[in-house]
Amino acid sequence: MFASLPRSACWLLPWLAIASVQAQESEVPSAEAPSLKPVVITATRTEREIDETPVRTEVVTREEIERTNASTLKQALENVPGLQLREVLGKSGYELSLQGLSADQVLVLIDGLPITASTSSTVDLSQYLLDDVERIEVVKGASSAQYGSSAMGGVVNVITRRQAAGFGGTAQVDVGSYGQQNDSGRSFSANNRHARFNLGGGGEKWRLSVSGDRLDNAGFGVDPDAYPRQGDANLRQQASVRGEWLPSRHGRAWLEASHYTEDDTQRYNLFVPPANVPQRKLESITRDRVSGGVDWRFANGMRAQVKGVNEQYDSHSPGYSNEVLASDRRSKQRMQHLSTQLDLPAWGRQLWMIGTDWHHETLGQTVNGGSELGTAGDAKRTNTEIFVQNDILLNDTWEVLLGLRGQNDSDFGSHWAPKVSVRANLLNGEDWKGVFRASVGQGYRVPNLKERYYLFDHSALGYRVIGNPNLKPESSNSFQLGATLSRGSKLSIDVNAFYNRVRDLIQTDLANATVVDGIASYTYSNVARARTSGFDISANWRATPSLGLNAAYTYTSTKDETTGQVLTRRPRDIVRLGADWRIQQDTMLGLRLRHQSSELVDTATGARSPGWTTLDLSLNHKIGRSVTLFFGVNNLTNRQRDFSNTSDYGPISGRYIYVGAKFAFGNAL
């Protein structure tokens, strides 16, 4: 596995060995309490210890977010094994891919409720800041039986923190620099500024918290004296308030309101013979989200949950050519979602669950005052779903989880998606434990409103993409097979193989493009059947009380079964390596290495994006109980794409250095 790593990454392995020896010799006591196994909910929609779930779940803990000093959801997910992050086309953000399936096929949730995508398609992971996040759960493979359409590739569920009784809070400030590529051209200027806070408290019955986050990135340029900027400038701000009512130990009700704004600036040149013409694209985004719910447990063991969300997402994108307004695009999206869930009392060794989901969304978009949708008025979609699940504990060794969801869509009628998962404790000794997992499920995804109606007009760049209202839903069969072997809290090894076969895959139909006056027009079509397969292997090792090591490798094979070619933008090999070394009682050093192999970019020309490796370093030093100082270097190897090579999709930014401080008090300590 490690033989495929480039030389720039290989030096990390002997370094870790040296660190292990030094950690043993230093005899620094661990400041961490014995680790408790995380409780997760995404795999089964109920609380289960992570080792007890029949569906494998990856968890990004609050401790990991703090150790790596992540500021956005994108940064928090960078070290999840097998997860690929890539830029959203035409946007200043990032989307994700799991098991070779696209971002359109992965559902992103906040506390189990959907979040609006940036253009009614892909969720921009950079648009969610982490001021009040407790953990992030990732389930790979088809999850439509649990979560419906868009979960055919997996689910990412962000779990927010619940306010504790008492009073307390946190605050953080940090600044960062891209060195010589800073927008100002000065290497030691504060190119990026970040500040956030969280404050809350309450008694046994009522609790209230408020939080805010501001991330100001001035962008960067390979040549700061030139007009173009390879890194977009953006200002992201997020504020939220959350209240909880706990009338008894059996139940709670909560209500949360959040307001997010973003202002982006893209600067680039467009070659119009005989000269380059400066282009500037702005985008102002506003997202207002109100969510709430009730969770009640009855004395007989029954549990009832009701929760919902109303979200408004507005975007204004003026484009300038040589400082003359060339286009003025406005988009508005509205989304409402209501979910109910009833967990029935245990019946024998069976745990039944039933629930419903109702979802409605609209999309309206204009450019220069005219509609950019192929429909009269706003595009709309409504669906109603019902799901049932039975968790059968056959005996102390075997468990079977059965799930079935029926969906009735306003435009596509009814569809049923089943799933069966099996879990077995095959090894349960005093020292070693072994768990076997397998699942078979069907995925299902209704075409989103953008794919059906949106006119993505980039005539200035020589192409247009036109929505297709005649698209059919995608569907898939997903097979997952894996095992976990662990020795207490010292060592854990996970292996998982996957196979996904997709029918009616939606993608841009390149073969049937038309060209008029030099402008190529494409549309979306159900043009392919595809498969993705491969395996993940990961290991976590507590080498000493002061040193923890982790490694993960993902192999992915893809094929477009219509053309026989591999799918584009899917790297074969993804590697993650990490180390956390407690140098002293209050000082923690972290390393995170990421490697991706080369990937096919264009099937017609065979062009490939070269492989790349990055290494991040973080150093956190605690002063007393309240203050933590931190320093870090992202992309220490300074691997940056060649911007003159249009096929290079390596990291956009080079080396980035930051420094900051965190403060906590009261019940946040």
- Count of discrete alpha- or pi-helical segments spanning 4 or more residues: 6
Task: Say what the CATH topology is.
Answer: Maltoporin, Chain A
User: In angstroms, what is the radius of gyration?
Assistant: 25 Å
Count the strands?
A: 37
* Biggest beta-sheet profile: 22 strands, antiparallel, barrel
The averaged pLDDT comes out at: 90
Q: How much helix is in the residues?
A: under 10%
Cα distance, first to last residue?
A: 41 Å
Q: What shape does the CA trace take?
A: globular
Q: At the fourth CATH level, what is the homologous superfamily?
A: TonB-dependent receptor, beta-barrel domain
Structural class by secondary-structure content = mainly beta
Strand content: over 45%
| Low-pLDDT regions | 1-35
Total domains, how many? Answer: 1
Which architecture does the CATH hierarchy give at level 2?
Answer: Beta Barrel
Q: What top-tier CATH class fits best?
A: Mainly Beta
Question: Briefly, what is this?
Answer:
It contains six helices and 37 strands. The chain has 669 residues and is mainly beta.
Written overview of the protein:
- The protein is mainly beta and 669 residues long.
- It has one domain: Maltoporin, Chain A (Beta Barrel), CATH 2.40.170.20.
- Helix content is 6%, strand content 58%.
- It has 6 helices and 37 strands.
- The chain has a 22-stranded antiparallel beta barrel.
- Strand 20 and strand 21 (398-409) form a beta hairpin.
- The chain is globular, with a radius of gyration of 25 Å.
- The model is unreliable at 1-35 (pLDDT under 50).
